[in-house]
């Protein structure tokens, strides 16, 4: 079996364990599957991160442990010579939203989100990449023509007949609004003369503006720049390297491709980022990002792309915006004057990946920096949008059911409360579910600047 991701970190997994049950084929990928010990902790229904597809369906197959059993059967030859094209495996993997809850809450940290990427890549190699997956994954490329894409999306959102025709042709749910690109994308400011990457005072940082902030919500990037500069940091916005083959196209972490099993395209995007970051990696500059799924991919999923030691260095040097602010505050290096905001209690929804890596602690610390701010973390599972998952015609209904487990009822209970959600997909789901546009923490802090 040729792997699309690098599973070598599991090389010694299960050795000496008589009950590991490692499948007969699949090599190190099979060992990654077999770390599950079948304790059924993933088949629970309390509030929290763990497996929203099981909580909604009440079907054991739609839990990490249930998926492991089907994967083991496939890798043991029970599904014939092309198991990754078998509909039984597709049924088991289909509702995994890649929330990474299992990696945090499973006793052995089974990484079903990464396993699903490998399954999709294997299936794509056998059956081809579906049109819808090509459209969604290629979003960073389509956004080279932002005005044309914006016009097309607006037209589709406003003409129900066109939306239904596109659903029939592409499988994109007609009853879902697609996010519309902003009228004006984020524009990288000219580099100031004092932005010296080799400055000795430790006040230089690199800001990575992801595809979603750049093209859909540029106010988030503007707010992050304002806060970092107000705190005394010299900010360089990451741009392609001088020898980049596509210097006019903004950098992307490759998440859209990776989440849909198009690993080689994701690897190419990751290499572009590494080339652009090489000077910052060499000098140890903090690299700050805004979108949890993008930044935490650099820290986790990119380590499975076979990109060499630089990927490991980057994983240790990249921070979510709120993680960096919290770290600098803990180090007594943060000089930021903030004022009270007033208003109702703030409701906070955490992105699944933030929860999975424990990044919500940093968010809590940062919110406490704003004087007199009253806030409450919504105890919820995945919002259900999960990238493009909630936009799929066959997934739209269950995506809404996931949102209705905990998140949307909690927001409806306090209809006047402002909402904070750092994930782009989370904000999209909330806007559709309760017609309230959540803020990103960078926007909240910018509003609180004295």
From TrEMBL:
- The lineage's top-level taxon is Bacteria
**Annotated protein name in UniProt:** (Fe-S)-binding protein
């Amino acid at each position: 079996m040729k792997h699309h991701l690098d599973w070598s970190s599991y090389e010694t997994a299960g050795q000496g364990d008589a009950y590991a049950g490692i499948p007969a084929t699949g090599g190190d990928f099979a060992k990654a599957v077999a770390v599950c010990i079948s304790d059924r902790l993933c088949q629970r229904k309390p509030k929290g991160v763990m497996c929203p597809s099981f909580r909604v369906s009440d079907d054991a197959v739609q839990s990490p442990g249930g998926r492991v059993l089907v994967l083991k059967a496939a890798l043991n030859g029970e599904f014939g010579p092309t198991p990754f094209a078998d509909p039984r495996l597709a049924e088991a993997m289909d509702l995994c939203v890649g929330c990474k809850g299992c990696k945090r809450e499973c006793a052995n940290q089974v990484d079903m989100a990464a396993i699903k990427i490998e399954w999709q890549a294997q299936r794509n190699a056998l059956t081809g990449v579906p049109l819808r997956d090509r459209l969604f994954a290629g979003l960073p490329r389509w956004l080279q023509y932002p005005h044309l894409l914006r016009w097309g999306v607006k037209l589709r959102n406003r003409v129900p007949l066109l939306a239904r025709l596109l659903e029939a042709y592409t499988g994109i749910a007609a009853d879902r609004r697609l996010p519309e690109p902003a009228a004006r994308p984020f524009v990288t400011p000219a580099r100031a003369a004092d932005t010296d990457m080799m400055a000795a005072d430790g006040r230089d940082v690199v800001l990575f503006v992801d595809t979603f902030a750049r093209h859909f919500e540029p106010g988030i990037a503007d707010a992050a720049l304002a806060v970092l500069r107000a705190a005394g940091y010299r900010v360089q916005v990451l741009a392609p390297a001088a020898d980049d083959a596509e210097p006019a196209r903004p950098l992307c972490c490759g998440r859209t491709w990776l989440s849909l099993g198009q690993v080689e395209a994701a690897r190419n995007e990751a290499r572009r980022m590494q080339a652009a970051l090489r000077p910052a990696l060499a000098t140890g500059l903090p690299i700050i990002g805004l979108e949890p799924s993008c930044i935490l991919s650099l820290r986790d999923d990119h380590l499975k792309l076979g990109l060499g030691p630089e990927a490991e260095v980057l994983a240790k040097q990249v921070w979510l915006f709120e993680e960096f602010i919290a770290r600098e505050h803990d180090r007594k290096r943060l000089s930021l004057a903030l004022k009270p905001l007033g208003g109702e209690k703030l409701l906070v929804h955490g992105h699944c990946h933030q929860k999975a890596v424990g990044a919500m602690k940093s968010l809590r610390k940062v919110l406490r920096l704003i004087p007199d701010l009253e806030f409450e973390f919504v105890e919820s599972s995945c919002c259900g949008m999960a990238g493009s998952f909630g936009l799929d015609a066959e997934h739209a209904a269950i995506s809404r059911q996931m949102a209705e487990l905990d998140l949307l009822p909690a927001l409806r209970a306090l209809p006047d409360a402002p909402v904070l959600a750092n994930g782009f997909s989370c904000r999209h789901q909330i806007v559709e579910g309760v017609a309230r546009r959540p803020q990103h923490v960078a926007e909240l802090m910018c509003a609180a600047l004295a």
